[in-house]
Structure prediction request, 212 residues.
Amino acid sequence: MYLPKAFQVFDLRLLGDFIESHSFATLVSVVDGLPFATHLPLLFDRTQSPQGALLGHIARANPQWRAFDGLQQALAIFQGPHAYVSPSWYARSPAVPTWNYTAVHVYGAPRIIEDAQAFSDLLDRLIAFYEAGMPKPWPGILPADFRANMMKGIVGFVMPVKRIEGKFKISQNRSRDDQRRVVEHLETSADPVARALAELSRRHLGIGEPMG
Prediction:
């Protein structure tokens, strides 16, 4: 992606945390010579390959998985909080509107998980990850024949991370005063996504909490 130096994020731990917090991704590859995208949750495994791996499953009826041969490249896009920024928030004019946003792009070559036990283990890991925050986590216990029948309708895959790019466009190209003003306006927004961006911006830019 277009990645000006001011907005680059290199910290792999931070990028991994971002992926885990915003794990519903857009997976893009080429099908029949054209771009093809699937929206799906992906699990980030930091222990696989030098930069980790993404794991997930896709509907068997979805043609995208047929190109998952471990050679053809794909792109997983993770979108974080974002918001409109009004020029009226800045200390000086003239200025123009913009959009602040956060995203991580992961590149790799997906391959199918052929081993039945490894595929079953992946499903258990996905369930455990997403049930962890529930008041009463579902244990994932199903009748064996029902589970086996459901698994026939999906395909598991792993995508070792070949390259990862992080972009936090959060007013780094503005003055410190403008950065603070943008954060404070976002904090008053009725939109929870904008408020989440304000919180991330405070933390990443090192802007202290307001006094009083």
In short: The CA atoms of residues 43 and 55 lie 5 Å apart. The longest helix spans residues 116-131. The chain has one domain: 5-174.
